[in-house]
From TrEMBL:
Its EC number is 1.2.4.2. GO terms for cellular component: cytosol; oxoglutarate dehydrogenase complex. It comes from Salmonella typhimurium. InterPro entries: 2oxoglutarate_DH_E1, THDP-binding. One of its GO terms (molecular function) is oxoglutarate dehydrogenase (succinyl-transferring) activity. This is oxoglutarate dehydrogenase (succinyl-transferring). The keyword Oxidoreductase applies.
């Protein structure tokens, strides 16, 4: 039942964004909706296994859905971004589907901090960014072989290093 609710939330967000902002780029997760319950289950399992931080890296496809349905960003904040109501303290010059975000999620095993890395325009670069962030977090913990920080990188059908010209 939980997975069905999570899938329904993912689909509902995509339908709402498509209807409310029909001309806006949103890089929908449609067809890949199972990503939401999968990520949520990974976070739950990680939290129950002693992980305290999860660092996510992904391209723009489905990113807005992950922000809302996994990281818990307030939907109204996203809708305000679509409507052009930017918060001044966040800076300017980047698009909503490149922005990073972090939050704390309660699991049965305790609190887990989630961090979604900012998305570089060169999509293949997000993996080393995530790995560097995870390494820095582990160094800060002084437990280099620890399971306390989990990296998750999600690759869609876009650029891979060494792939050459893709058309």
């Amino acid at each position: 039942k939980r997975f069905l609710n999570e899938l329904t939330a993912a689909e509902g967000l995509e339908r709402y964004l498509g209807a409310k902002f029909p001309g806006a780029k949103r890089f929908s997760l449609e067809g890949g909706d199972a990503l939401i319950p999968m990520l949520k289950e990974m976070v739950r399992h990680a939290g129950n296994s002693g992980t305290r931080e999860v660092v996510l890296g992904m391209a723009h496809r489905g990113r807005l859905n992950v922000l809302i349905n996994v990281l818990g960003k307030k939907p109204q904040d996203l809708f305000d971004e679509f409507a052009g109501k930017h918060k001044e303290h966040l800076g300017t010059g980047d698009v909503k589907y490149h922005m990073g975000f972090s939050s704390d999620i309660e699991t049965e095993g305790g609190l887990v901090h989630l961090a979604l890395a900012f998305n570089p325009s060169h999509l293949e670069i997000v993996s080393p960014v995530v790995m560097g962030s995870v390494r820095a977090r582990l160094d800060r913990l002084d437990e280099p072989s620890s399971n306390k920080v989990l990296p998750i990188t999600i690759h869609g059908d876009a650029a891979l290093t060494g792939q050459g010209v893709v058309q």
